[in-house]
Each structure stands twice: as structure tokens, then as C-alpha cells.
């Protein structure tokens, strides 16, 4: 998986020309991209979500569009519509902003449920059907949706079934004091996003996405992942456990995480690292536990502590088939 590791390093180095810190977040965003999944960023305004998405798109040479969700945003506003051309006498389809490779959907919880559903259908199917005609979306197609975790007035929170469509839920958080000083000194003088140049191609990303399936995983690690998923359904503090989609996504994320680190096999740490990102929005803690200030992340940490990770010998861990 040297190719994928080098690809990730090129994107990482280019993006960090304009993105300060966020090393772990960028790694997980790239993991989601390589899994052909989509990412939900739940964070406050002004922490760099748009810059991060634009920088990744620019480093890959992909088209980028941004949708600002509002309560009056209609599904046709993002999908496009068919219009009548009086000169030619024909109907032509005018594509909406959804027809891009990298799409930032800002404040998705401000869009009405019908618009949310149209977007999430496109994310799941990789195509949209309008007036009986199917329009495929260009690959790679990657969506980063954002929502404000503390502002609820005038919002339409995504239901669990739609949250389950996102591969990961991430949070950028505030930068450190040192990072903020660097941001202050550097980014008040010029707009550096123009510095980002393509260092890999969309075809490289598609090849990497197809290569992820070649990463091997042992039966012991498969059992480990299944135990984690089933524990979310059996835990006394959880009212809604992870679905089989969560099982599939956690396995894919583990393989992509291993590939980013240059391995063609999964180790236990590759499974542990994305657990909270892949499962936190797929489970729901009971209100009684929430009153005790117990969150989904707390319960997932407890589950990981209680389930012993498999210990493999060197030959088995490296996938030795001799």
C-alpha cells in the first residue's frame, strides 16, 4: 500500500499549506474519501470547515461547490431542473450544484427534510433521478456536510436513519494557542487557498478507492469488529445500537486507515482508531445515562476497554500465507 500512503502524504502536505493543525481530522477525512463514503462535520462556525474541504479538492484537482442550506432551499435547487428552450423547442436539463466532485453542504440541519432526503439519496446511490431520467454523478463524489451542535432554532435535525448514511462524524475543535498565533500572523496578510495546487489526480483517488479492497483482515479481527458492533446493541446504557451498515463501514474504515499507513493488512489499532468516528452517530445513549453526563463517546470508550483486542503472532499479523 505504498501508493496509498504516498498519495495521502502528498495531499496532507499540500493541504497543510493553508490548514493549521487538524492532523488527525485530515487523516480521517482522507479515510472517508478512500472508503467512497461521506463525512459529517459537527462543529461551530469559523473553525475552518470550508477551507479544509476546498483545500482537499484543490490538492486533487477536483471541482468544488458549496451549498448554504436554508429552510427555503428546495431539492430542485441542489439537484437541478428541466427547462424548456423556446428557441430549440426542446427540454434541457440544467444541473444543480450537486453535480460536482467535492461538495460542501453547510448547515445541513437547516434544510427541510425533503431537501435533506434528496441529498442523502444522491450520496447513497451516486446518481439522481429527475423526471424519470437518471443522471450519474462524477467520481470521485465526496460530500462534507456540516451542522452546528449547539444552535437548534430554525433547524431540522437529521434523523438516525439519515445520520447512518454518513461514514463518519468528525469535529474540528478549536486550535491550540500556538496554532492560533500562527493563524493570526499568517492568514491576516493574504488568502493562501490560492497556493494549493493539484498533487494527485481524481483518477489516482479512484484507483486508491478500488485498491482498499485488497487490504486483508484476519478472522480474529473480523470477530473483534463484530463484537464491538454487537456490544452497542447489548449495552445497558444504549437505546439504539449500531446497524449492519455500521459493521460494514467500520471494516472499510479500518482497511483504509491501514492503507494510509502503508500496510496491506489490518491491525487492532486500525480498528480502534475510527470506532468513535464511525459509530458515535449510529448509537443513542439512554436519557437516564445522559442525565449522568454520559455520552456516546464515553460508552464506546468503555466498550473498547472491555473487549480484548486480538493478539496475533508476527506471521499471521503480516498476512504470511506460506
TrEMBL record:
The AAA+ ATPase domain covers 35-176
- Write out the entry's keywords from A to Z: ATP-binding, Nucleotide-binding
Q: Which residues form a coiled coil?
A: none
**UniProt GO MF annotations:** ATP binding; ATP hydrolysis activity
The protein, known as:
MoxR family ATPase
Pfam families listed in its UniProt record: AAA_3 (PF07726), AAA_lid_2 (PF17863)
User: InterPro entries, alphabetically?
Assistant: AAA+_ATPase (IPR003593), ATPase_AAA-3 (IPR011703), CbbQ/NirQ/NorQ/GpvN (IPR050764), ChlI/MoxR_AAA_lid (IPR041628), P-loop_NTPase (IPR027417)
**Domain of life here?**
Bacteria
| Similarity annotation | Belongs to the MoxR family.
Amino acid at each position: 500500500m505504498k501508493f496509498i500512503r504516498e498519495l495521502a502524504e502528498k495531499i496532507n502536505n499540500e493541504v497543510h499549506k493553508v490548514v493549521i493543525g487538524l492532523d488527525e481530522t485530515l487523516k480521517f477525512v482522507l479515510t472517508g474519501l478512500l472508503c467512497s463514503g461521506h463525512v459529517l462535520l459537527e462543529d461551530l462556525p469559523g473553525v475552518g470547515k470550508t477551507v479544509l474541504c476546498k483545500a482537499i479538492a484543490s490538492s486533487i484537482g477536483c471541482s468544488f461547490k458549496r451549498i448554504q442550506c436554508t429552510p427555503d432551499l428546495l431539492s430542485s435547487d441542489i439537484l437541478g431542473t428541466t427547462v424548456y428552450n423556446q428557441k430549440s423547442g426542446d427540454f434541457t436539463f440544467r444541473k444543480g450544484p450537486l453535480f460536482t466532485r467535492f461538495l460542501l453542504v453547510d448547515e445541513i440541519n437547516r434544510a427541510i427534510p425533503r431537501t435533506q432526503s434528496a441529498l442523502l439519496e444522491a450520496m447513497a446511490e451516486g446518481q439522481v433521478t429527475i423526471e424519470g431520467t437518471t443522471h450519474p454523478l462524477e467520481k470521485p463524489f465526496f460530500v462534507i456536510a456540516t451542522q452546528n451542535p449547539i444552535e437548534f432554532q430554525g433547524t431540522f435535525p437529521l434523523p438516525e436513519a439519515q445520520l447512518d448514511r454518513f461514514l463518519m462524524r468528525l469535529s474540528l475543535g478549536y486550535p491550540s494557542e500556538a496554532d492560533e498565533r500562527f493563524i493570526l500572523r499568517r492568514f491576516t496578510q493574504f488568502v493562501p487557498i490560492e497556493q494549493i495546487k493539484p498533487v494527485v489526480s481524481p483518477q489516482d483517488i479512484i484507483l486508491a478507492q478500488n485498491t482498499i479492497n485488497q487490504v486483508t483482515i484476519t478472522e480474529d479481527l473480523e470477530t473483534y469488529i463484530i463484537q464491538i458492533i454487537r456490544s452497542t446493541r447489548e449495552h445497558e446504557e444504549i437505546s439504539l445500537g449500531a446497524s449492519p451498515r455500521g459493521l460494514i463501514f467500520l471494516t472499510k474504515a479500518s482497511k483504509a486507515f491501514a492503507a494510509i499507513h502503508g500496510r496491506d493488512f489490518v491491525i487492532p489499532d486500525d480498528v480502534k482508531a475510527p470506532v468513535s468516528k464511525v459509530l458515535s452517530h449510529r448509537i443513542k445513549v439512554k436519557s437516564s445515562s445522559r442525565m449522568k453526563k454520559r455520552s456516546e463517546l464515553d460508552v464506546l470508550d468503555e466498550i473498547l476497554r472491555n473487549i480484548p483486542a486480538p493478539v496475533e503472532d508476527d506471521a499471521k499479523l503480516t498476512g504470511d500465507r506460506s
